[in-house]
Amino acid sequence: MINTNEITNKKFGIFMMAAFLAAYIPLTVAGLAYKSGNTILCLFLFRFIAIFIPLIAVLIARLPFKKLGWKPKFSVKYLLGALVGPQILSWIGAGIFFIFNRDAFGVSLDAYLAMLPPETREVFSNAEINVNIVLTVVIIMSLTFLPITQILPSLGEEAGWRGVMYPFLKEKLGPVAGKLTGGVLWGVWHWPLVILGNYFYEGDYFGKPILGPVMICIALCAFGILIDHFYEKTGCIWIPSLMHASMNASAVPLMFMLKSGNQHLSILGPNCFGLLGCLPVIVLAVLLLVLDVKKRAN
To answer: Which ranges of the chain have pLDDT less than 70?
Structure first.
């Protein structure tokens, strides 16, 4: 991990400007593309361009890139926790969401078909597809294949956020305020997608367009505390990258379970970025903060 003495105010300022200003260009275009129905362009700009800019910002600011923790020295429990933890929390959150929104549950391909171009959508709509089999395969993939394949894209963010931003903010503001501020900033980084593209929160959700940007900050603030906790314990940048990838992967199968016409409920769930879907993560994050404060007080 980087020694915070090596992150000067000037270098941190350069890092933040590069990480945000440069990323806002592809993120803005991605948001507009998503709103217009061009999902492929959105995902390319977001998942293959913008997501690597925080890592590049570390290099631009000439911060000690080699000290992020590249050597895999971690225990099995943290490896499994990073892989499975976000999945378990997301499924518990989804369960809470559907308890309060039972009529919204329905296994279908509607959410995915809505993301496809019209001609492709028509092909899949006319095909005889067993949705339950597809869902089973996707659940297995979300627990195994998807997080592993998304480690490198997630590393693009984690090298910047947990590697540089969180250590600096914790040093300057204290551990609690630093983590909370870091989580809010992480959410703000995603705002072009949320505000311009309705990404994460579909349809005419309650409180639109204000509540979406606020909710993404709350969700990522909670996840940021968990991910940073694992980074503090292991000192290995691959662990938060895996946890970040698992967080994203956990949302994939849940898209099959929200019945068509209920997209306005996305601000609540069922994925881990909605208020009810994120509730278990929020509770665990608060618990970690409380335990950390008590530990430092003793």
So the answer is: 74, 111-127
